[in-house]
Fold each of these.
Amino acid sequence: MNRLSFFAYNRWVVKLTLTPIILLTCIGGYGLAQESREQEPKEEEPAQEASEPSEEKPQEKRPFFQKILDEIGNDLATSEAIIQVGPRPGGQAGRLPISSSKGPYEGGEWFVAPVPVSNPTLGSGLAGGAGYIYRFDPADDVSPPTITGVGGMFTSNKSWALAGMHDMAWRQDRFRLRSIGGFGNINMDFSGKGVLPGDNQLRLPVNMRGAFVETEFVGRIFERLFIGPRFTGLLSETRLNSPQLPVPPDFPELVLDVTTISLGFKVMRDTRDSLFYPRHGSWANFSADFYREGIGSDFNYEQYKASFNIYQNLGSHQVIAGRVSLCGVNGDVPFFGLCYLGQEEDLRGYRVGAFQDERLLAAQAEYRLQLFWRFSVVGFFGVGQVASGFDQFKKANWLPGGGFGFRILVARENHINLRVDFAWGRNGNSATYINGGEAF
């Protein structure tokens, strides 16, 4: 499995739920604090002399939807060329929209906040976190800010988790370090390997508990290209929540007490103009993790993942975002190490655990439109498929997923949204997602 959010389950339980929660909590609190500062009373400016009369032009009254259409039309008329894969002119790799090095990050801030969460795998619930956001080097206005935080969640299917993370960059964005880890108890349904659309799925309730850690360190070797080592470790116990249910003989082993450890590497190219709400640029990732008994793992297998995100604004109110992702595993792979379809950044509308196999290919596009005040809307559509090999992909087995969502801005400085998405898939599948940050 890869990235639903956290630990005992595997990396997919950490990345999809708790990482956005911690980031949203830290940065969202920061944005609210900044807004309160902006609202402090300012010194009154001297009144304008009577000899300089001011001319006030009456504001044109237009219906609300007419205003939105006019703004969209203006954006389209003034937008740059669509799909610019290269770096934004004058931009820095991963640079945030901060005006100078001497700004609000210099002193740092502490924040605490609750965040509602919902997804079709874990159900609905509440998460919370506390964090500190600051400049590792106050004189460095190129590197993204450093974020250190802790978070936790509890959902309606009795899943819970606690996690901590540290994400930093330094030396003018020459180096980046990211580490996340935690522990908890996850309940989900597993339908087996090689399930095809339209199959009468068997849903086995599985409980997984344990601890997980993932660390990666990359250095910039060219202007936009980063490369470096990765490490992952998982200690987990897996049991069937209903032992009386018969398990088909071709199912992967579901009762496990295992340790999985991997060493690997990551290659990344980052030309985005923001880490949190990109309007320009692209983000390409490739990672390879090698699990071996010689370094303490109970399984010998490899996991490869690649993704490419691209962003293009259409004026100041609209953004088009796209993502393509691939996953492949080889060797003696445990069931939680397979490629799982249904993760939010890859395809919305399906629960994780319904479709998984040794190969995955997914693509998704999203249109983002800012409306008024802090509100935005999005529309998205994607397709995905899993199979035992890329040569086994078939036209009839593609799974579509699409829908719409709402956003409310909780941090103006770096444009961090709280999002609610409604998605529909094939064969009556549907899902609602509530989380922090964008899906990809």
Amino acid sequence: MIPHPFRRLQETGVLGMNTRNAEIIMAKNPRSRFPLVDNKVVTKELAALQGIPTPEMYGVIMKHGDVKRLDSIIRDRDSFVVKPARGSGGSGIVLVKERNETDLITESGRTITITGLRYHVADILSGVFSLEGHDDQAIIEALIHPDDIFTPVTYRGVPDIRVVVYRGVPIMAMVRLPTAASDGKANLHGGAIGAGIDLARGLTITAVHRSSIVTHHPDTGNPVSGINVPHWEEMLLMAARSLEMTGLGYIGADMVIDRDRGPLLLELNARPGLAIQMANRAGLLKRIRQVDKAPEDTFATPEKRVEWARKNL
């Protein structure tokens, strides 16, 4: 007999780690396609083929002998991002917002020298931040200037939006809001807030912070619910196209809203986490079962999949 707490979770449609791994990821995500999303350089190339915008890439450093190229890549740029191609959870990312004659100033207000940044790039190449500790590549790309919509509920940094997609259907979404505890990063494990988003309306609802339901941002004091997310249908379509991009049936699409360029795809994740359920007070498994019960021809195009999701989930 299933223990009572676990039976209740199943009844409410909550997706657990074991079920996610054994019944969803293994069944819907061919291992041969993981490299398409585990490497952000490859993901950018696939997105371009689908007409999905991503942050502008300034350069890629692929081996230690090329670290000296960093100076020429950033020479005329006051702001930029350095990130590992195979990193996860925001590790290894440096967001530079301005510079003076000797130092770089990060989004969190920390200073770093050019020499220090070269050492950081060398760490990236050595695999310090990569998914499996393997040699990696360092990406230098444009810094996002976020839309003002989330400014009242953001502590520095850049909020991002995660949409979980099953069989090409967006089934759940949240916005991750940086806090002082997360050092301005949109990382839930680091202390950021996750606010659920109503799929039909594009409106923020409940929120979670360190496993607790919250109503207000801990640093700004402003309510996190009731925010209308701009470009909502466009973002759902971008997420839905991840199926055509990768052939992966269960994926997390991470996006940002730039004030000048609008929605941009940051990365795709073949193993999206489960905290999004707390942020929405709803279960992923229940929504997965709804998708599985729908007629196959319902999901022929990204547009049809988004329309179905907004009407049914």
Amino acid sequence: MNPKYVTDIKDVAGLTADEQISLTTVTRWFAFRANDYYLQLINWNDPDDPIRRLIIPDNGELLTWGALDPSSEERYTVAPGVQHKYRQTALMLVSDICGGFCRFCFRKRLFVDDESEVAFDLAEGLDYIRDHPEISNVLISGGDPLMLPTPKLEEILSALRTIDHIRIIRIGSKLPAYNPYRITGDPSLLRMIARYSTPDKRIYIMTHFNHPREITEVARTAIAQLQQSGAILMNQTPLIRGVNDNPVVLAELFNELSYAGISPYYVFQCRPSVGNKIYTVPIEEAYRIFEMARSHCSGLAKCARFVMSHASGKIEVAGKTAQEIVFRYNQAAKPDNIGRVLVYARNPRAYWFDDYTDCITSYRVSP
């Protein structure tokens, strides 16, 4: 099967004519893209269907809120298409298209800004990575790297594999959810993964399953084929209002992933990007949901950490008391901050780390 892509909201048969007209206002600002495989997962009789919420625009996106680059990614751009925020990791933006446009996307700027941060000529970026031996792993992202033709993606993997100090290549992709036929229908992709995912230099596929209903039978087949090709799969998802902000649903997602051999990796606080207000849950409510979900999981299904991709680093929500909330830097732009613990007064209205302004205590954990 080769799903047909849909880019005009008026071509979505499940919407009424009035809905199609109303939502064109949203799509003038924030692009829409889906395919007929993914759209058929929607229960159109349920206006609150979570799959609908993931892919179909909502007029609430027009609320004035957020920033185009809430994590200040531009600050860490070191070459066209390459960011270097954390010492051991480089990020390569290699595609400016996705299998579907997530309504909660934190890189909307790639689709609304004329100045693309994606590089189609990666020579300068590869030279930068080659000249920085502290970089041991590269995350290939975008857009969605699996939207590239397999030969183009292989050019990137092949070039990275000529750099001895690159031990891990990560490919961030939602196509196992949006269009698993991209994987099951392309044996050359699987052969390529097998070629470059070696016992001492693995390829990781960072999947983006946001709701358990995305894990269909064909998605399970795609997952198994990637695993059989030598890739290691891990999942990350934001906590999204109306999608997985229910502990039972989030626990089901964790469990189903673990049953398929995918390790739940990160649950992200939804970034305060432009248009994202209606998809975002306050941090302390989100942490409660996250911990309640974990209580319904086995050890293998509860590996995820609840974090924010803040401009200063990967900040984990590590705990809370009746009066305080505890954060820890899992990773940091300034290496000295790694492991640092920050304790703040509780703020139930906080949506982002910057909303905590009255610091009670700040100290570093001993190694």
